[in-house]
């Protein structure tokens, strides 16, 4: 390949120098734009890394707090609600209102247990059951006695009872 003499043909010299200068300007522009974009992305990744580390620390703290709270709750479980279920109310043909009133009378005997430690409930279980079973409940000129079928004491204390006797007061 023949390379022309640069002294005789100055057009070629201007052409190649234009290509070289254009390439250098383009390369400089590319580096400036790429550097600016990369710098922006690098700063954004740094901010996100800081946020992620803060969120991880916050998450670890919350998990630690929840674990401590759960351990405290396991030590101090208390009864939060008391429910009573009548198993054989249909045998005595009681209406829904009478069943509700009977449940409320039984619940009145057990209301003071709400908020009590479960360990305390477990230690006085027999006293609770005998208090419910030995009481006579009056409803619409009838007296009812109940027998405990089952007794569960967790955060919700549940007492399943059945009516064993019905007497008319008249």
Q: What do these coordinates show?
A:
The protein is an alpha+beta fold and 170 residues long. It has two domains: 1-75; 81-168, no CATH class. Helix content is 57%, strand content 20%. A four-stranded mixed beta sheet has the order 1-4-3-2. A hairpin with a 2-residue loop joins strand 3 (142-153) and strand 4. The N and C termini lie far apart (133 Å).
The backbone outline, from C-alpha atoms, is: rod-shaped
Most strands sheet: 4 strands, mixed
Average pLDDT: 88
How many helices? 4
**Ranges with pLDDT <50 over ≥5 residues?**
none
Strand content: 15-25%
Overall tally of domains: 2
Which structural class do you get from the secondary structure elements? alpha+beta
Distance between the termini: 133 Å
Strand order of the largest sheet: 1-4-3-2
Cα-atom radius of gyration: 43 Å
Q: How many strands?
A: 4
Q: What's the SSE blueprint?
A:
Layout: H1 10-75, E1 81-86, H2 96-110, H3 118-123, H4 125-134, E2 137-139, E3 142-153, E4 156-168
Summarize this structure briefly.
The chain has 170 residues and is α+β, with helices and mostly antiparallel strands. The chain has helices at residues 10-75, 96-110, 118-123, 125-134; strands at 81-86, 137-139, 142-153, 156-168.
What are the salient characteristics of this protein?
alpha+beta, 4-stranded mixed beta sheet, 4 helices, 57% helix
């Amino acid at each position: 390949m023949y390379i022309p003499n640069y002294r005789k043909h100055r057009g070629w010299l201007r052409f190649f120098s234009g290509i070289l200068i254009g390439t250098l300007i383009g390369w400089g522009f590319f580096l400036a734009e790429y550097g600016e974009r990369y710098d922006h992305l690098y700063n954004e990744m740094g901010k996100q890394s800081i946020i992620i580390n803060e969120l991880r620390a916050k998450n670890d703290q919350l998990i630690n707090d929840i674990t401590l709270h759960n351990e405290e709750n396991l030590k101090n479980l208390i009864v939060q609600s008391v429910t009573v279920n009548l198993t054989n109310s249909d045998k005595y043909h009681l209406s829904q209102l009478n069943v509700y009133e009977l449940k409320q009378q039984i619940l009145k005997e057990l209301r003071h247990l709400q908020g009590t430690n479960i360990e305390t409930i477990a230690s006085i279980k027999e006293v609770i059951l005998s208090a419910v079973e030995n009481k006579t409940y009056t409803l619409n000129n009838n007296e009812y006695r109940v027998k405990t079928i089952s007794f569960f004491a967790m955060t919700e204390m549940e007492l399943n009872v059945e009516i064993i006797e019905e007497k008319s007061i008249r």
